[in-house]
Amino acid sequence: MVQVGLNHFLIVSAILFSLGIFGIVTRKNAVMVLMGIELVLNSANLNFVAFAKYGNFGLSGQIAALFVIILAAAETAIALAIVLNIYKTFSTVNVDEIDNLKE
């Protein structure tokens, strides 16, 4: 029987982080970039909870993960409002086509 240990959680977290960074770097759509950021934040949450469980830190990992979830929800609400405003102004959400925000 395979015991799930800290290494397994770290591997899954590294995969999530890598997919998130890949999504941030390669996507042109602003919504897909936001989804990549959410993957990176979820990988951090997984690390917080795993280290709290296997490092005997008590509830500190869960509290940090809860704080990151609240931060991600606020970030999503503000970012989607910005994306909708950009779409209304430029009729696109591709991040490489939006180059005259100063004007």
Unreliable residue runs: none
Overall tally of structural domains: 1
CATH level 3 topology: Helix Hairpins
**Helix run count:** 3
Structural class: mainly alpha
Question: Any idea what the CATH architecture is?
Answer: Orthogonal Bundle
**Gross morphology:** elongated
Radius of gyration, taken over Cα atoms and rounded to an integer in Å: 17 Å
How many runs of DSSP E, i.e. beta strands? 0
SSE string, helices as H and strands as E: HHH
CATH class value: Mainly Alpha
State the helicity in percent bands.
Answer: over 70%
Mean pLDDT: 88
Distance between the terminal alpha carbons, to the nearest Å?
A: 62 Å
How many strands, what sense, and barrel or not for the largest sheet? none
Description:
By secondary structure, the chain is mostly helical. The protein has one domain: Helix Hairpins (Orthogonal Bundle). It has three helices and no strands. Helix 1 packs antiparallel against helix 2 and helix 2 packs antiparallel against helix 3. The termini are far apart.
